[in-house]
Amino acid sequence: MPSRRILMIVGDFVEDYEAMVPLQILQCQGHRVDTVCPGKSAGDFVLTAIHDFDGAQTYSEKPGHRFAISADFDTLELTDYDALVLPGGRAPEYLRLNPRVLEIVRHFADGALPIAAICHGPQILVAAGVLAGRQCSCYPAVSPEITAAGGHYVAPSSGMDSVHVDGNLCTAPAWPAHPAWMREFLKML
Known about the structure:
189 residues, alpha/beta, Rossmann fold, 6 helices, 11 strands, 29% helix, globular
């Protein structure tokens, strides 16, 4: 498989597993992954949160780790990248308010380049206006947003470990889906 250059957009309180594990899987396959965050440069970091399914009515949240930023958000050259990854957690709720983040997402969507989004990551796809008529999986609490944006919510078929592919869009409900989600995304690359 040829090496690809992949962009991952993160922010403070990104879900730890949904940033760290895909980064490592993609790197193990020989791909270069640049992690970026609005307002941050290479060498900076974001704080992560660990979300768990431990019997409450919703997921719980615990402090995570420092996650390294490897590229400067303000000087990105989008044509240098072959694919985009949007992890979940709480970061997407405010990243979707950044016009440059939305411009980046539209670049990948308009170019039919591979986009992987998981959990709350599809909130950014909604805000970018790229889900009309598309099928998308996500954390179930995000499903009303998918539908309101004209998308078709795909409920997890086998718990939180399923994946859904619609053209260049590879989506999953939460980190238990990493094996299926990354397997399908790697096929796209």
